[in-house]
Amino acid sequence: MLTSVDADLVRVLADPLRLRIVTLLAHETLCTTHLVEETGARQTNLSNHLRVLREAGVVETEPCGRFTYYRLRPEVLAGLADGFARLAATARATAENDVKRSCP
């Protein structure tokens, strides 16, 4: 079963721009300038989304001179994927056993 922490993470990743950022960061560590170029989002909007991702523990930062690089934390996504895999296994077992609650 998904926990409230997992549900919060799903909400964080449900935003299309944040999901795009995560997808880009899965391939390489990028700075804000790169992410602006890749997404077409305004820098302030992108910074707000990156803050949400950082606070959720999805990304970590690495200062480099006047730039900040962002790196994906794959273990966070792996944990979420494990939660969904357990949920899918439960649903599969329920379907196979034809489990249903009787109506009153």
Explain how this protein is built.
There is one protein chain. The protein has 104 residues and is of the alpha+beta class. The chain has helices spanning 4-13, 16-27, 32-39, 43-55, 74-96; strands at residues 30-31, 59-64, 67-72. Helices cover 63% and strands 13% of the residues. The protein has a three-stranded antiparallel sheet. The protein is elongated, with a radius of gyration of 18 Å. The model has no long low-confidence stretch (mean pLDDT 91).
Question: Key features?
Answer:
5 helices; elongated; alpha+beta; 3-stranded antiparallel sheet; 13% strand; 104 residues
In short:
It contains five helices and three strands.
Which percent range fits the helix content? 55-70%
Order of helical and strand elements: HHEHHEEH
The span between the termini is 26 Å
Radius of gyration: 18 Å
Count of β-strands: 3
Portion in beta strands: 5-15%
Tally of helical segments: 5
The biggest beta sheet reads: 3 strands, antiparallel
Q: Give the strand line-up of the largest sheet.
A: 1-3-2
Average residue pLDDT: 91
User: Pairing-aware structural class of the strands and helices?
Assistant: alpha+beta
User: Uncertain segments of ≥5 residues (pLDDT<50)?
Assistant: none
- Overall 3D form: elongated
Layout: helices, strands, pairs:
Layout: H1 4-13, H2 16-27, E1 30-31, H3 32-39, H4 43-55, E2 59-64, E3 67-72, H5 74-96
